[in-house]
Amino acid sequence: MYKAPVEEIAFTLKHVAGMADALDRGLFGELGDDLVDAILAEAGRFASDEVAPLAEIGDRQGARLENGEVRLPDGWKELYRNWAAGGWNALTANEEFGGQALPHMLNVAALEMWNSGSMAFALAPTLTMGAVEALSAHGSPALKDKYLARMVSGEWTGTMNLTEPHAGSDLGAMKTRAERHDDGSYRIFGQKIFITWGEHQATDNIIHLVLARLPDAPAGTRGISLFLVPKYLVNDDGSLGARNDLFCHSLEHKLGIHGSPTCTMIYGDGRHGEEEGAVGWLVGEENKGLACMFTMMNNARLAVGMQGVAICEAATQKAVAFAKERTQGKAPGWTGAGMSPIIEHPDVARTLVTMKALTQGARAICFACAHAIDLSHRSAGEGSRHWQERAALLTPIAKSFATDAGVDVASLGIQVHGGMGFIEETGAARYLRDARIAPIYEGTNGIQAIDLVTRKLPLSGGDQVRGFIAELQGIVAEVRESNAEGFGTSAARLAAAIADLSVATEWLLAAQGEGRVHEALAGATPYQRLFGLVLTGSYLAKGALATTGDGAEQNRIALCRFAAENLLSETAALKDRVVNGAASLAAARAILA
Amino acid sequence: MYKAPVEEIAFTLKHVAGMADALDRGLFGELGDDLVDAILAEAGRFASDEVAPLAEIGDRQGARLENGEVRLPDGWKELYRNWAAGGWNALTANEEFGGQALPHMLNVAALEMWNSGSMAFALAPTLTMGAVEALSAHGSPALKDKYLARMVSGEWTGTMNLTEPHAGSDLGAMKTRAERHDDGSYRIFGQKIFITWGEHQATDNIIHLVLARLPDAPAGTRGISLFLVPKYLVNDDGSLGARNDLFCHSLEHKLGIHGSPTCTMIYGDGRHGEEEGAVGWLVGEENKGLACMFTMMNNARLAVGMQGVAICEAATQKAVAFAKERTQGKAPGWTGAGMSPIIEHPDVARTLVTMKALTQGARAICFACAHAIDLSHRSAGEGSRHWQERAALLTPIAKSFATDAGVDVASLGIQVHGGMGFIEETGAARYLRDARIAPIYEGTNGIQAIDLVTRKLPLSGGDQVRGFIAELQGIVAEVRESNAEGFGTSAARLAAAIADLSVATEWLLAAQGEGRVHEALAGATPYQRLFGLVLTGSYLAKGALATTGDGAEQNRIALCRFAAENLLSETAALKDRVVNGAASLAAARAILA
Q1: Which residue in the set B449, B581, B592 is minimally distant from A343, CB to CB?
Q2: How many Cα atoms are found within 13 Å in the side-chain-facing hemisphere of B64?
Q3: Are B247 and B68 in contact (CB under 8 A)?
Q4: pTM of this prediction?
Q5: What is the CATH number of domain B296-329+340-443?
Q6: Pick from B474, B476, B356: which is nearest to A585 by CA?
Q7: Annotation marks residue A50 as catalytic
Q8: Nearest residue on chain B to A428, judged by CA atoms?
Q9: Of B163, B422, B565, which is closest to A255 when you measure between CB atoms?
Q10: Where in the numbering of this chain does the Acyl-CoA dehydrogenase/oxidase C-terminal domain appear (chains A, B) (predicted)?
């Protein structure tokens, strides 16, 4: 059973991702080390003791649609309410509406643990937090007053309604329409698919944020507006009014995250409500809906990245525990009686250490991204702009590297379990089933790569990424200076990997500068992985350097060395694909005809 | 819907894997080109038109245990009977018992197509063929006379009973026991798990081959005997007699291959049968049961490799079709109206071409392995020994590379489908769920790697693998000589990859020679993948060289170039892991404590 790795998380937050420094500088107000530890410990306890025990039943029963209502798995309604009652939904929200205004770093750390407990469950708060963020940034004072406090507290959940059957990654193709109403409200008509936690009975109301198109809107993405559409209308005294004209038409039958209801939502077909159309209110300005969504995009993508980290951690814990218990054969050098635990077999050990390294790397990247988001909010002027860029640069890497790692590590975890891994009751397979959506939603990892190469590399004329690479080179210098024997050839390996990253970066910037966008995009995914691997090595080194004088230090150094000497060797191939791969891909394109 | 790639398969068999030469030399008797094509076409038709349409219902309904009997998915009983009536079970078996004595190459090609149609369904014949093979090689004349003809025809299916809860990869830990009976028969008592198609109603009888231990057997793997244990006893006139004392206790709830009943079998608990214990007959000699199993190991492992190829092909077909239909966004350079098909996006094209290359590579490796098996049976003296070694060397690579590719390609296929890939009705997720068992059963891919490094590399003092590598270098020379422009840098890339393979091979041979087995095993999995990648590149080149003067030639050259310039770059990292990776793995071992 999953046990939240509270100490490891705290260490990574503080000493790898930059929280210790931010605390020292008072950027997080009165927040101190002790409170951070206490919050993490309690979030971890809730994840381990409350969430994780209900994950399996959630997977097995799934969310079910019965008479138009979604029935959650046994115990989940109470679980959600206990979670909200713990104040967890309010960690980062503004104090004005009951939030605790704590750093995002703390929130993503807690999200990791809840997702390790049950990714399907943690999706509910993840979506609500996104809706809170969009509403906080763009809602009118009246809308905020009416809705925000109860969303911040978690009394009501929120959803994001973007996708339609023919408008997934390309929201410009959207057809859901909105009509202006005399009283300043709007009426929404249309169908939305893949709406996470779109309907359920855990809360009295559900606040839908819906993208739709006004009759006179420009075509494409510049003609999309964002609306708040509650399941139940809310009277001015805060009491619930009539049922709004919207409902959950069906639930998807999915590979994983069974406990999370993935709804097809119908707005304005007249089945519910007192008048025609689903009543909604504009959030932000007309036709500026996409900009409102983009506000929360970094956080949402990072939250999905945390799902990847969460699965990595849980799958690794499970595989390590199994490999210690399960005995088969005799490993070379095994002198014990009978068969050896399979963890003694070098190939199994390689698998498990690889899982550990990917987990730690993905976690550090995501926490560094959260740190950048925090500092962008808590710095002034140039500093804010710098950290905004850093967050923007890190977001696609955090999302893609962590979610790819989630799938890979979950799959390795099944492999470690042998035949038992294929049996659902073992639980290892669920991690793979759950993990598999994360590289897809909130922008597929291929789209993250396009975003990274075409929008993020050019930030500040390329100087944001160059500055970041220079920082990584600084870590290499520290490894060299440390002279700690355990690092082996880490410094040289890491330096070579960073050089690969630098070459690939300059090549991509030049290609785009010269209008060879097609060639740059051909290498976008290898580049994105290259960046993630380099960061994994760099952050493992940073963690090793930050530890002193005990077994933990030796372990961190050893993990860094393993990553440097066994995983980073891939960077040369990835760089080569970026720099030399486009021509053969273009030539091979005809094969697909 | 899956359409069997009959032409591609025929081409690969004949011109890449060596069948054309073998036909020319008359090694396959009167078998000619036309008959090969006709058999492949009909096997493909059956796979596409009969098997594939029942795959989805098989997955959804699964096999169910009802009142001690296994109920197959709707239509599967008839499907099996039609399949057997087509004579498909008898392709390779001896003519003495009704077999057609056709090459294994033809059988694995057909297996690929049936597995593409439904891997869960194709498991039934796969297991029966294994049982036929073991019985043919080791059964007494009396046993063969009584059972073989009806197993060859497929009138009865066969099973292999190896695994027990604490004896999976390590069969020495087995506890099922056998007692000698006065009449020369035996009585079997024990529990076996993970028995594929262990119980069903598609045939009147099921012939179980069961490993068990005699009371006076030596400990470990040298004390295991093989028994034939029929579900119904067979009278001397061939009619069915009493029910034997064995039954299916339960079915596993698995990640995939739902239509295939995975049974826990109980032998000799007295619930059925007229006397105590399940009645069985010895196959081969007492305590030599494992040797009997090893006889069929190469074929069984190759058959699992074909499952990997089959999933690759089916998942790729599905993804390519989707990517041509689905429109989203505008790819760079897209000049059509509206959104472009996603296949136009470079990242999607890269994914699809990668899937194609892995599929073709895995197929060619498996067919080459089947060719080696065929020639080992159909050559004399030194030739037979050579091909036996070649088959032995290729088997772990074929099994592991193809099954890893199956998982990777199925996962990429989901990714191409975006959100729809996560929805079960789409069908892309089933491929991943089915594929995930193949790297595990018939010896995990980690065990294949141990086998490759410790048993196969040392064959003929290392000269078998060295000779093979020299052959691959010959392909490079041909690419160089061909001077075809489309190859790009293929020759140089391939030469470098083969050099990596050669260095890693010599290092592993030396390490073992010097007693550093632990270090050799630490690199076994990277080495195995390195070998598979080099073979992929080499066989794609061989196929390209064998085609002349049309669009197909250009396509083959382009795919070879893509593999050479985009996939083979990984070999340097893999070699490095073999040669330099062990020390850091050993140092990191403490992390797992």
Answers
A1: B592
A2: 11
A3: yes
A4: 0.97
A5: 1.20.140.10
A6: B356
A7: no
A8: B255
A9: B422
A10: 287-452
- Of the partner residues B168, B566, B587, the one whose CB lies closest to the CB of residue A585: B566
- Spatial CA neighbour of B129 closest among B36, B24, B207: B207
Q: In this complex, do B418 and A356 lie within 8 Å of one another by their Cβ atoms?
A: no
Both structure tokens of A255: 């590979």
How many angstroms separate the CA of residue A571 from the nearest CA in chain B? 8
Instruction: For residues B397 and B388, give the distance between their C-alpha atoms in angstroms, rounded to a whole number.
Output: 15
B157-287 carries CATH number 2.40.50.140: no
Residues of B in contact with A323 (CB under 8 A): 592
Rounded (10°) CA dihedral B97, B103, B108, B110: -80
**Which residues, at least 6 apart from B164, have a Cβ–Cβ distance to it below 8 Å?**
B173, B174, B175, B176, B190, B191, B192, B193
Contact (CB<8Å) B424/A253: yes
Instruction: Take residue A373 and report the two structure tokens written for it.
Output: 């988001």
Catalytic positions of B, please? 442
Q: How far apart are CA B402 and CA B353, in angstroms?
A: 16
Interface test with A, best of B584, B585, B589 (most A CBs within 10 A): B584
- What CATH class does A6-152 carry? mainly alpha
Residues sharing a CB contact under 8 Å with residue A202, sequence separation 6 or more, in sequence order: A72, A76, A77, A80, A81, A124, A157
Residue B561 sits at the vertex; the CA angle it makes with B346 and B416, to the nearest 5 degrees, is 30
- ipTM of the complex model: 0.97
Domain definitions of chain B by residue range: 6-152, 157-287, 296-329+340-443, 446-583
Q: What angle do CA B535, B537, B542 make, to 5 degrees?
A: 90
Phi, psi (degrees; rounded to nearest 5) at A244: -80, 160
* Chain A: residue whose CA lies nearest to B583: A562
Output the DSSP codes for A136-202: HHH--HHHHHHHHHHHHTTSSEEEEE--BTTBSS-GGG---EEEE-TTS-EEEEEEEEEEET-S-SS
For residue B563, what is the nearest residue in chain A, using CA coordinates? A584
Chunked into runs of 10 residues, chain A (593 residues) has average pLDDT values of 97 97 95 96 98 98 95 98 96 92 97 98 96 95 97 97 90 93 96 97 97 95 96 96 96 98 96 87 96 84 98 98 95 90 96 98 98 96 96 98 98 98 98 98 97 98 98 98 93 98 98 96 98 98 88 92 98 98 95 92
CA–CA distance, B520 with B502 (Å, rounded to integer): 15
